[in-house]
Amino acid sequence: MAEAPPLPRGEIDRGTKVVGMCKNLSFTWPLLKQTAAEWNEDRAPQLGAALAFYTALSLAPLLVLLLRIAAAIFGDDQAARLEIEHQTQSLMGEEGAEAIQAMIDNADDSQGGLVATILSLVTLLFGASGVFGQLQVSLNTIWEVEPKPGRGVWGFVRDRFLSFAMVLGVAFLLLVSLVVSAGLTFATSYLQHFLGESQFLGGALNAIISTVVISVLFALMFKLLPDVKMAWKDVWLGAIVTAILFSLGKGAIGMYLGHSALSSSYGVAGSLVVLLVWVYYSAQILFFGAELTQVYANQYGSRILPSDNAVPVTEEARAQAGIPRRDSRQASAPDPFLRPPHTA
Fold first, then answer.
1. How many CB atoms lie within 10 A of CB 63?
2. Full-model pTM
3. 54, 74, 96, 157 — which has fewest CB within 10 A?
């Protein structure tokens, strides 16, 4: 029997690319499908509503704390305010920026002596930590763990200290973002003398740096807030994907808020409603990214284990929360692409 002639090199390369695309699709689609199923089962919309409420209570103290730190670095309170207003307007739109500015104006009271200033900073720090406490509860729900019962005062102190640390970390990252953005604005205006009036370079650099800062922020949230042990390689994958989704989604959310009648429909409370809606939809992106991280780590990565201060959520607790049992969930939707869990 005569042998078939060998395929041309180009045909082999095209065939290899097709096989690679099929493998990527067979990996990506089941991962996204499982992520969407668990996002729905963990009741992410309710978690987002709770996070939006706590954010509304904690955002003003966090912004005032950021403003005071930024004013100390910029050397001018007004310059720091303008930069924060510019960043929030690009992120949330004009109405959202107005709500943020009103919060800062009403909450910031820099008068008083040293003792009053220290007490004010402590109060701001404590108030701003509330949103991270709620975020920790939400991520524990997604990671399917809960704090050990009977942790007492030490457990409360540990959680509050972690929230304080996250407040300072977020304030630092936001401050870095503000400084870098201001530097890019100056550099872009300087380069215009050589490159013309094109804004592409400055916009591209700003978008890249913003995505990097957001990725670091999400990585810290996923790694430090929930009561779990997880490898950094799994954390970074989920954080980068979440940051990309967030960068794409914030534009869609901004377009929705800009073309909706939310602000005018609620009168004087319109700005607050716009802020709540923005946080709510942003939280859905965050929780979808967290679910993606959880599914990837458990099915393809190094797996997620409860920390020393936590235990897995029991089936009784899942039933009380209305979440399907693990065995029934797996039996109802078997997936041949997802490998079985690792054995210890």
1. 23
2. 0.74
3. 157
